[in-house]
Amino acid sequence: MSGHPVFVEALRGGHVESRHPIAFAIADAEGRLVATRGDVERPVFPRSAIKVIQALPLVESGAADALGFTTAELALATASHNGEAPHVEGARAMLAKVGRDETCLACGPQWPGREADRGRLHVAGRQPSRLHNNCSGKHAGFVCAACHQEMDPAGYERVDHPLHRQIAAALADVTGVDLSAMPRGTDGCSIPTWAIPLRALAHGFAKLTTGVGLAPTRAAAADRLLAAARAEPFMIAGTGRTCTELIEAFDGRIYVKIGAEGVYVASLPELGLAVALKCADGAARAAEVAVATLVAHLTGRADDPALAPFLSQTLRDWNGAEVGAVRAAEGWRAAIAGA
Hints:
The chain has 339 residues and is an alpha+beta fold. It is built from 15 helices and 12 strands. The strands form 3 sheets. Strands 1, 2, 3, 8, 9, 10, 11 and 12 form an 8-stranded antiparallel beta sheet that branches. α5 runs parallel beside α7 (136-148) and α9 packs across α10.
């Protein structure tokens, strides 16, 4: 089913206050579209949703094995994290494996995502570092992959750097998209980002999930990275984050990853399917509800009380009283029925 997008609604006092349009594609590894809504051919910037793809050269080059990467460090290489202590120290340890430190990271400093962690820096009279950046694990992985291959890591964030040519080639291979024909911009962490249609993004993650359509080395690398993220969900996001908590709610049987501006991907290994979605107005709260709704319906858990907090986010006033909710509007069951 395609056509108009479905909506996530914010209700206050039982009245619809806001509506967020969601387009999505659900695909298998053969490229068959199981269900779609909205324009799934329009290129969208997936941003951080494709960090598993960007980490493929780290594993394929042999760097991860040669440097003794742990499962947690592999997960961190695919992360958009809160900048909590395990994330910061994990990225520091990754860089130490190649004798480097945070000064070689191109991602820039960023305050941690949680108020408590920001407060600790304030109390200590410290400023955030590049290790606190939500992409520091990914960038540490880039530096490690470059150093292991005897590339000068300086400028690794540029589109013409040898490492980034490897990353672009992996993205094109996995999604089947000619990147030269796609819009290109710069991500918040300073690396190139290409726009990809939701259809191709869903197909690509189904390939990553199953290994179908990938070379054996690439399939093995993808399986290892996805398994690491499912085994160490805290490392890919952190406390209070949808990616971490939804993977935990499914006991590591699914993979979920956020991208900026209302993008999410999800993969369901037991079904051989993957999801890619975009909230048109970029609202993260709507994208969170949308990905949870899709995964819950596809796995037959739409009525599971354990998933209720993901399917309907409670809105509260400053006294803590419930005043509304963010939830999927009518039409989602019909939109996914074919799946």
